[in-house]
Design brief:
Helices cover 41% and strands 18% of the residues. It is built from nine helices and eight strands.
Length: 302
Amino acid sequence: MSKIDVQKFHRLIETNALINSNYGDLNSLLTHILDSATRLCEGEASSLLLINKETQELHFEILLGNAGEKAKSFTVKMGEGIAGWVALHNRAIIITDADKDKIHSYDILKELNFDPKTVLAVPMRIKDDCIGVIELINKKGDKAFDEEDLEWLEIFATQAGIAVVNARSIEKAHDKIKQLLHEQTKTGLGTHTVIAKSPAILEKLQIIERVAKTDSSVLLLGESGVGKEIFAEQIHLKSSRIGKPFVKVNCAAIPEGLLESELFGHVKGAFTSAIASRHGRFELADGGTIFLDEIAELSLAL
């Protein structure tokens, strides 16, 4: 293996490591992938376009080169230009002499201040479905892109596709979690309505009204089934924390070996099975209320 090939594989490994560790900033992640592919294939400029399935158009997500923010206002129709052709046919293409190419229009590239002479474009695929296009414009040294460049760009296009899909999945999961947490606190009555005539219960509700105005920790005692969770929820709903999460944890239902990680989270690599960083329940409840049910079941050490 040549020194150049070793450098390419090292760049590929670095990109894989970044993908596995960071979906918080998709734009930065895609920029890194596109930059790596551009450097490896010695391109002068490049772009990454994503397909909007509803409008059947491509929009410029990342551009490296002369275009800058100007490209954000441009869209490409399916089948239009080089990127549109690649997206429509789900096939890669190498154009060695753009000036003589009559099939694929490259007017948009010229509008973006690119002067295309050679172009390499590949689809970003997920399970044979094209979700976007990566395009390299002009190889340095007035050289033409070749099949080896195409193979490397396809590898990085696959990485970019995986990054996009995974980031979107994580975003949907976070939105769902936020929605579920919001649904617990979106009404003044909460998820449970307390109706009482008993003097003993009315007395407890009056205590809740006073306690809820403070940030004090509250210990709720009572046999199983008497409604400790409902009273904890009422404390949250009548407090200034109502707009924040109300997180419930059944301490007795979580194995002791996992409870510390469950409550306080962990960073990637903290132990054998920690393949990714995880937020603990206390962090998720930040600014809101955490209800530790069956707290007496916790070990004294914990």
